[in-house]
Write a structure and sequence with these properties.
Layout lengths: L2 E11 L16 E16 L4 H4 L3 E6 L5 E9 L2 E7 L7 H6 L1 H4 L5 E16 L5 E14 L6 E11 L6 H12 L3 E2 L5 H8 L3 H12 L54 H24 L5 H18 L6 H36 L10 H24 L2 H15 L11 H25 L4 H28 L1 H39 L5 H31 L3
Antiparallel strand pairs: 1-5, 1-8, 1-9, 2-3, 2-6, 3-4, 4-5, 6-7, 7-8
Amino acid sequence: MAETKREIERKYESDDSGLPDLTGVAGVASVLDQGVAELDATYYDTSDLRLAAASITLRRRTGGSDAGWHLKLPVAAGVRDEIRAPLSDAVPDELAGLVRSRVREGQLVPVVRLRSQRDIRLLLDAEGRLLAEASVDAVRADRLFGGEGSAQWTEIEVELADGGDPTLLDKLDKRLRKAGVRPSKSASKLARALAETAPRKKRARAKAAAEGDEAAPAAKGKGDVKGKRKGKGKGDGKGKGRAEGKPAVVSEAAGRKAPDREPVTAGDHVLAYIRAQRDAILALDPAVRQETEDAVHDMRVATRRLRSTFRSFRKVLDRGVTDPIGVELKWLAGELGVGRDQEVLAERLTKGLDDLPRTLVSGPVGERLQNWAKAQHRGSRRRLLGVLDSARYLTLLDTLDAFVADPPLRTAAEGKPAKVLAKAVRKDLEKVSDLVEQALEEPPGHDRDGGLHEARKKAKRTRYAAETATPAIGGPAKTLAKSMKSLQSLLGEHQDSVMARQTLRELSAVAHAAGESAFTYGLLYGREERRAELVENELPAAWDRIRGAAEV
């Protein structure tokens, strides 16, 4: 079973002068010499280095106190989550699963071998507690695939102890810099090894670019958005620029970062938002597999944002390409929602039961509710993992990469962002307004419930469109996004009540069939009915306020 450790560290380049004395820095009372450890690590990646492109490292290491397999996932600058598995010959299945969204149908191969002589020092406080570990590493890197030769260097690494205060690293940093130690230009040993053992031509280009001899192409006017498609004069929305309107697979794009260029055109802004959601799905995949809190919810939101963006900006993007992708995104969002919706519903019902006086709880309601929640969770969990390992899901990721690499832009993509994006947002807002007013005209019951649910979905879509437009439009779009979020929350409370009542009817029927009292289920049902009624009573005035503030 793999274990996860949060790693917070900083790396420095060393000129072999060694580690300066750190005693007395921020409560460091003593420095304990641990001797030299011999470390031997083989790093694995795809042949096109997809993991490295996403700042992910996977290695098999012997030597030291933590020999085994280590997968490091980026969290923030200088912060990574290290997932460890016992030493074995092949990549452990659990770690392979955590990088499947990056590797997909590719193969993991050894790319670099790093051998280090690590001179270790423990930094302790006055009570002998570990504050941090500092080491001087003499490193030799040998390229095993996709490059040539070897490289050697010495570096200093300072890693915070588990539960330590991150400000300690800032104080240690001052002492190290004062001693002439420089922060490393590379984020990791692997990044430096790959750079210094790359093929000669790549190294020469990288060096020339760094020295300014081969500057990266500058963003021109409207950027590289042309509003045209390969094989067609203009993006006319008929989806004939590719075979049957489907993007070609561009596996090499897996995990690549978007170009660093400020959005200029309407298409630029839409694509920036799309890239951000694609990247979020990829980054959240391992967290979903590990059952990290809110990971499923966040991944589902990113999926919905993508689909909504395709639908809202049909004047910018070719529907012949986006509609088929939208179908797949709807499928993925649905699969992600199976477990998430059940989890939210279980929390709601449990809280409702807890709020009741014990004298009103008749029969084993709590036990039945708990068993239902557990059974639902087990089933949805197995199903979701199957989805994330499925060919359909991995193909969707390939398709999104291909879309980002070669976006199917229409002529409007070249337009001014404030004009093109605002028009699309206003159109979505009009749909929300119509749906809310139509639902309020219906009498309470099934038709009104359905109408308010549709209004909620359109409010989400309008919110996401406003988020896309905010960098271009500014305050008005930001205000609209907040207003739609408020409406979404209000209507979400209503929909949660609808779903809770449906589940209570089902549980009540099962309890009745088992000879148990259905009294408490009916009481909870009545309370949920009242909660929905309160939302419906509040909605007209709330909608007037929201509509008054929703101007773009």
